[in-house]
Design a protein that fits this description.
With 410 residues, the chain is an alpha/beta fold. 38% of the residues lie in helices and 17% in strands. The chain folds into 2 domains: 273 residues, Crotonobetainyl-coa:carnitine coa-transferase, domain 1 (Rossmann fold, 3-Layer(aba) Sandwich), CATH 3.40.50.10540; 85 residues, formyl-coa transferase, domain 3, CATH 3.30.1540.10. A 6-stranded parallel beta sheet has the order 6-2-1-7-8-9, sandwiched between helices. The chain has a 3-stranded antiparallel beta sheet with strand order 4-3-5. Strands 10-11-12 form a 3-stranded antiparallel beta sheet. α1 crosses α9. The longest helix is centred in the middle third of the chain and has 24 residues.
Length: 410
């Protein structure tokens, strides 16, 4: 089957997580993604803890083949070259690549690309069909645009931490770098929209993606600014404010999610826990009453959950049509046949060692009936595509490539 973005060339100036996430997804759709690293930092990015290699994952390097596990995951399906964009010759080579590119994507701090002479106005003047995506913490405009961004600061700024955690307890961040991952996914969708628009207009454009904007746009679907005015805590723990019950409950051997979002699901829950007499109760049967007395509802469900094991709780609740799920840990995910069947849990590939058995990586999450997706090559070693890109695509001869290497430009 064909690859949806076959023939689309992306110049990837990103680092850390949010930007590489966006270009990873573009590679998964078939784009040719060329990582452009700095010669000064390329090796340190690929060779940093935590390491993955023939002996597993470790915070200490155990073999010469050990590479950064995040790099191995985020650079799959990409090509790699080095250019020193602080030197005129490096910028000149980059602009020659721009002549042959469709997308430039970067996540430098605001103002860096302008100082280097590779911001959108400079790129558009060189190739007006290129669209240029900047992925930053606070966006390219607004009074906070120059602030440094990290995942935890963006979760704080966008309000996510204020609603994460237990009532009356300190705010918490999500367990993973959620603002990075979400912004990278939005950036991919922005690039795809710009590609579609170019089919109509023939011109490129600037795509401005802010981590705070992306996270806030998802967070504010709920009326969190009205929670306290409605008499409910802003931090709901594992509850969903508009449903009762829905929570995590301790079982005989672990934890489980149980809940009901509809009247029928609530009736099913009552049957599962052996309390069918409450189905027609004037109080328990009404969602408004259950929301106001959620602690009592939780105690009812918890008193049953602690008498069964997790598998039994899930099977009983699902059999009656209620919401139920076991809480998977990392080992459970590795053993879950559903993820394997859908190609979502795969062995992580190493550029010289091949598949690293026992070290998992996520597959590409979008499936199409008539198009192929996924990552067809492992993360590249730094500079490993210099001959192909600089020699083949740009036509530099071997002597020129050696000269540029000696000067530290590539």
């Amino acid at each position: 089957m064909h690859r949806i973005l076959d023939g689309v060339r992306v110049l990837d100036l990103t680092q850390f997580f949010s930007g590489p996430q966006a270009t990873l997804f573009l590679a998964g759709l078939g784009a040719e993604v060329i990582r452009v690293d700095s010669p000064a930092s390329a090796d340190t990015i690929a060779a940093a803890p935590p390491y993955a290699g023939p002996h597993g994952v470790s915070l200490e390097r155990q073999s010469p083949d050990d590479l950064n596990v995040n790099y191995l995951k985020r650079a799959r399906g990409k090509k790699a070259i080095c250019l020193d964009l602080k030197q005129p010759d490096g910028v000149a080579l980059f602009m020659r690549l721009v002549d042959r590119a469709d997308v430039v994507i970067e996540n430098f701090s605001v103002g860096v690309t302008a100082r280097l002479g590779i911001d959108y106005p400079a790129i558009a003047a060189r190739n007006p069909r290129v669209f240029y995506c900047s992925l930053t913490g606070y966006g390219s405009s607004g009074p906070d645009k120059d602030l440094k961004a990290f995942d935890i600061t963006e979760q704080a700024a966008a309000g996510l931490m204020s609603v994460t955690g237990l009532p009356g307890q300190p705010p918490l961040k999500a367990g993973t770098a959620l603002s990075d991952a979400i912004a990278g996914t939005f950036a991919m969708s922005g690039v795809l929209a710009a590609l579609y628009d170019r089919e109509k207009t023939g011109a490129g454009q600037y795509v401005d993606v802010s981590m705070v904007d992306c996270l806030f746009s998802l967070l504010y679907d709920d009326p969190i600014d009205w929670y306290e005015r409605m008499g409910v805590p802003v931090r709901q723990g594992n509850r969903i404010q508009r449903f009762s019950p829905i929570n995590t409950y301790r079982t005989k051997d672990g934890w489980v999610v149980l809940g009901a979002a509809t009247t029928e699901q609530w009736r099913g829950m009552l049957k599962a826990i052996g309390r069918p007499e409450l189905i027609d109760d004037a109080d328990w049967g009404r969602i408004e009453w259950r929301l106001a007395h959620n602690d009592a509802v939780d105690r009812l469900v918890q008193s049953w959950a602690e008498t069964v094991d997790t598998a039994g709780a899930v099977s009983h609740a699902r059999a009656e049509g209620a919401i139920a799920a076991a809480i998977h840990g990392p080992e459970d995910l590795a053993a879950w046949p559903h993820l394997r069947e859908r190609g979502m849990y795969v062995d992580l590939d190493h550029p010289t060692l091949g598949p690293l058995a026992g070290i998992g990586a996520p597959g590409f999450p979008l499936k199409f009936s008539d198009a192929e997706t996924g990552y067809h090559s492992p993360a590249p070693l730094p500079r490993s595509h210099a001959e192909e890109i600089l020699g083949g695509l740009l036509g530099l001869d071997e002597d020129e490539i050696r000269r540029l290497e000696k000067a530290g430009i590539i």
